[in-house]
Amino acid sequence: MSTDELISQIRKKNSFLCIGLDTDLSKIPPHLLEEADPIFSFNKAIVDATHHLCVAYKPNTAFYEACGIKGWEALAQTMEYINTKYPEILTIADAKRGDIGNTATQYARAFFEDLSFDAITVAPYMGRDSVEPFLKFSDKFTILLALTSNPGAFDFQTKRIEGKELYKQVLETALTYENSEQLMFVVGATKAEYLKQIRAIVPNNFLLVPGVGAQGGSLVEVCRYGLTKDIGLLINSSRGILYASKGKDFAAAAREQALQLQKAMAVEMDKI
Ligand SMILES: O=c1ccn([C@@H]2O[C@H](COP(=O)(O)O)[C@@H](O)[C@H]2O)c(=O)[nH]1
């Protein structure tokens, strides 16, 4: 998917919502545990109930890896389902990979070729040669962690090195990588007060923003400096949508939560 296609989907749906498929067997409705593949059954119901309200799905691979081979199979089946039934929707592997170039190439093949994701999250810590193998896939997006939503973000990311915060150095240096137009950056919704400075460095790249809902970030605060004339934002919610109900009405409850976020996004888009 190209950036223009993503923007056109956002305008069509009046939504820049990304739904996180963090499917946790201990949180899904108990009746689904009787199904042959409870993870896929849950994901399919969520996707069918919400696809018209969002432009991206983001399975966090940890939830699938934790279930071993069955988890990987459910992830592959989920990807095939979304790509076949809703090919216009961006798929993001929240895998936070990063390794020497030779190994990064295999990660890129695993997620872009084998599982057919459109995008992957990558940790920038190992530098250029660990990121460029992902960027070689010029029709895919590489989403670098810049300023994350968790409290531990302050351990390193906001520390100054030679007078400049590490997250700013990540943004500036990443723009020098080959195919940097295929980069997006993760910025936590809980760090909305940093967005003005972040936008000064990366005025055009899309930002993937997790942390609204369960982590307490504010959609309106994120939009204040995060939204650009070409939108430039994907705001993620996972638990707040997936686990709105643990009953048989879970998909309808998820749709309602997604609808509330989509409506709030439409209001923000009207302000641009
Ligand atoms: O800085 C980051 C980077 C990634 N995440 C991931 O996003 C979702 C958020 O889930 P919620 O349930 O909406 O809190 C989850 O997969 C995280 O691992 C993040 O939260 N912050």
From TrEMBL:
Residues 16-254 form the Orotidine 5'-phosphate decarboxylase domain. The active site is at 96 (proton donor). Pathway: Pyrimidine metabolism; UMP biosynthesis via de novo pathway; UMP from orotate: step 2/2. GO terms for molecular function: orotidine-5'-phosphate decarboxylase activity. It holds the Pfam family OMPdecase. GO terms for biological process: 'de novo' pyrimidine nucleobase biosynthetic process; 'de novo' UMP biosynthetic process. Keywords: Decarboxylase, Lyase, Pyrimidine biosynthesis. NCBIfam families: pyrF_sub2. Belongs to the OMP decarboxylase family. Type 2 subfamily. This is Orotidine 5'-phosphate decarboxylase.
